[in-house]
Specification:
alpha+beta, Chloramphenicol Acetyltransferase, 7-stranded mixed beta sheet, 4-stranded antiparallel beta sheet, 12 helices, 19 strands, 30% helix, elongated
Length: 410
């Protein structure tokens, strides 16, 4: 019995998706709920699981193709057994063998026993097993030995583009090239990030204010209570929970920083839904912690940890990214000392954290060394005046330099 695998119903704000990676090829055995293919939208990556146990009989679209809701992606022969030693499908595109009945595929190894040894062009298939499906198909089709190609992918992996460039004689992806170049289309997520950044630049009168914070008391509290906190809550006490809680408290006292512009109206939000910037291989994403003003430090740390794991695994859902009223980003994890973060519309402000550096400061007339961080607030000057921005940053500074204020809601 043939079972159709279709593109899931895409969210209302997403019109189509791009096939990013096929995890199976035609002729492979699949299990119910096993991920078959990743679909990349301009916001998230969606996984399409197998609805049944069986054999992937036919793939309708190759990697890179654009598909829409409910389009047919593949056909699974339900309950069929995978053919042991069946010839590999031609990458992600359906081959003539993949459209034949499963019984015919199962007979293939017997017929191959009397065939002559494979030619030099096909012998390279033994070295392509570690390649992704699209690259494997290209290597076989073009008769390229991947060992001859210099990979430009992650950790030196050979990509489909490397193989295409090698086959066409371009320097990109060719081992030993003196001036290598490579032209690679933006991913859907990267394209969306670019659009959002240009939207912010062109639609917001953005300004950035700075301050500095002595994190000595925060670091002392983490050192003193960190172990007990982790035992009690099952999660480490990080810096982000201090900043998120301080921001949530400050947003309640400075509501215009938590507001957004809608035409000629200003919408004031009586809650702090804080977007936390998370870096992934595909770009920066900003999942949202809801009602941070009501959350404990443990709740915040658990929420951040869950989102970070989902982001790394590519499992963030669209609802995880929607609806934030304010953003926090931490360039300090990469060593940034100071930056001007870009506001994420329709939000009106973003707080930038940076690297902690021990610097000489004067305290009570005495020069001491203290762990200092520059903090930045970029904001929409159409509705947030400089005074509001500065007072907001001072509020953040006062809370972090006196962490007990946060516990008392001061």
């Amino acid at each position: 019995m043939a079972t159709e695998v279709k593109v899931p119903v895409l969210p209302e704000s997403v019109s189509d998706a791009t096939i990013a990676t096929w995890h199976k090829k035609a002729g492979d055995a699949v299990k119910r709920d096993e991920n078959l293919v990743d679909l990349e939208t301009d916001k998230v990556v969606l996984e399409v699981p197998s609805p049944v146990d069986g054999v992937l009989k036919e793939i309708k679209f190759a990697e890179g193709a654009t598909v829409t809701s409910q389009q047919l992606l593949a056909i699974i022969e339900e309950g069929a057994a995978a053919a042991v030693g069946a010839p590999a499908s031609a990458g992600t595109a359906p081959s003539s063998a993949s459209t034949q009945p499963t019984a015919a595929v199962a007979e293939a190894p017997k017929a191959q026993a009397s065939n002559p040894p494979p030619s030099a062009g096909t012998a390279i298939t033994s070295t392509t097993t570690d390649l992704p499906p699209g690259a494997r198909f290209t290597a076989i089709k073009e008769g390229i030995n991947p060992a001859d190609v210099e990979g430009t992918g992650r950790k030196g992996a050979v990509t489909k583009e490397d193989l295409i460039n090698y086959a066409s004689g371009k320097t990109a992806g060719v081992s030993g090239g003196a001036r290598p170049e490579e032209r690679v289309p933006m991913t859907r997520i990267r394209t969306r990030i670019a659009e959002r950044l240009m939207q912010s630049k062109n639609s917001i009168a953005m300004l950035t204010s700075f301050n500095e914070v002595n994190l000595g008391k925060v670091m002392a509290m983490r050192k003193e209570l960190g172990e007990s906190f982790e035992k009690a809550n099952g999660v480490k006490l990080g810096f982000m929970s201090f900043f998120a809680k301080a921001a949530a408290n400050a947003l309640q006292r400075h509501p215009v920083v938590n507001a957004s512009v809608d035409g000629n109206d200003i919408i004031y939000h009586g809650y702090a839904d804080i977007s936390i910037a998370v870096s992934t291989d595909k770009g920066l994403v900003t999942p949202v912690l809801r009602n941070v003003e009501r959350q404990s430090f443990a709740d915040i740390e658990k929420g951040i940890g869950e989102y970070a794991k989902k982001a790394r695994d590519g499992k963030l859902a669209l609802e995880d990214l929607q609806g934030g009223t304010f953003t926090i980003t931490n360039g300090g994890t990469f060593g940034s000392l100071m930056s001007t973060p870009i506001v994420n519309p329709p939000q009106s402000a973003i707080l930038g954290m940076h690297a902690i550096k021990e610097r000489a400061i004067v305290e009570n007339g005495v020069v001491i060394a203290a762990p200092m961080m520059y903090i930045a607030l970029s904001y929409d000057h159409r509705i947030i005046d400089g005074k509001d921005a500065v007072l907001f940053l001072v509020d953040i500074k006062n809370q972090l330099e006196n962490p007990s204020r946060m516990l008392l809601g001061m």
